[in-house]
Amino acid sequence: xxxxxxxLLGMCLVMIFISCHESQTKALNQDDWQKISLTPHKSKLxxxxxxxxxxxxxxxxxxxxxxxGSVIFKIDLATGKKLWENIDIRGxxxxxxxxxxxxxxxxxxxxxxxxxxxxxxxxxTGKTLSKKSLDAPTVRGAGGIGKHYFYQVYDRKNITEFxxxxxxxxxxxxxWTAPEKESCGASMYFPISYINTRKDTLIMxxxxxxxxxxxxxxxxxxxxxxxxxxxxxxQNITVFSRLSGGFRGIAIYKEYVYFATGFYFACHRLKDxxxxxxxxxxxNIGSIAVADGRFIGSANxxxxxxxxxxxxxxxxxxxxxxxxxxxxxxxxxxxATNFYLYAVDAKTGALLWQKESPDTRENSQSGFIGNVVGAxxxxxxxxxxxxxxxxxxR
Length: 394
Hints:
The chain is mainly β. It is built from no helices and 33 strands. Strands 14, 15, 16, 17 and 18 form a 5-stranded antiparallel β-sheet that branches. A 4-stranded antiparallel β-sheet has the order 1-33-32-31, with no helix packed on it. It has a 4-stranded antiparallel β-sheet with strand order 2-3-4-5, with no helix packed on it. It starts with 34 loop residues before the first strand and ends with a strand. 43% of the residues are buried.
């Protein structure tokens, strides 16, 4: 276990990549390493948008130092040892990075994007290979699949465009522009989801409209065929109302796609976009996950809701847990963070256990935050100060 360093760090975990191959490293025991300090430089308590990537033998995570610069770590799963750290990346004008929700790993390179800059970092050495500025007022990264990397651009006329950058290529390709609506601003949301068929690569793009006159919003999504360069269909999720607007999550499970937006959870059929069920929740929704035939979503009223993924029938509710990050599923258990780390039985909603961050003894604000990720019977989660490894509930 690496000794604690008395530094502060903001960090949240927002992206999961788990290898489907079994790890060849020595099996990890809970006591092999419990925490890793993620602060190579003295830093102050700042919560940044910091994703984590879990691979077969290592974790890539990002932190933030006292100068609002970003620090990237590669950590060995078996020992908890830091393999390298990169402190080259900075936000514009000294500001912290606006990291997209799904950083992309391809050909041993990590592709990372802030609000207007695109970085490539060598996965083996941690060296910054390149960076470039994108000529647009506002850019948001969407992540990628294979050699395809996607992001969206907002211009000063409220027009939203969706671009592709072929990794290794020289030019960006405009794929789609969201249709305009009178008196409304259009916006696309993240995360997007990818579908690989035998022939084509498809992406699901959530987008919506906001009417500034009556403060109502409408939610939609588009299925785009990257291979054939065309929209397959667009579909409405919610009609204009004050309960709509603001996507919080998207998940694809079997032949269906699921959304969390505004005050609604919704399920649509993939092949044609038809809405199968929709549930209105009494408070703004947080995030969602779908596994083992069950849809689970959190809301700002501190409740986890579980529905049958195919029919929408409510199966259970669990109070006292609310998370803006997708719950993580492994071996019949959903894991979520809301200052504490919770393990909830997927079938019954029973609370199996909850863990308090040991770092709250040093700083009362250093509870568990962000996504939970896991593999091989181990769970990984962070506080503001450290990354922790725990034995899974099952």
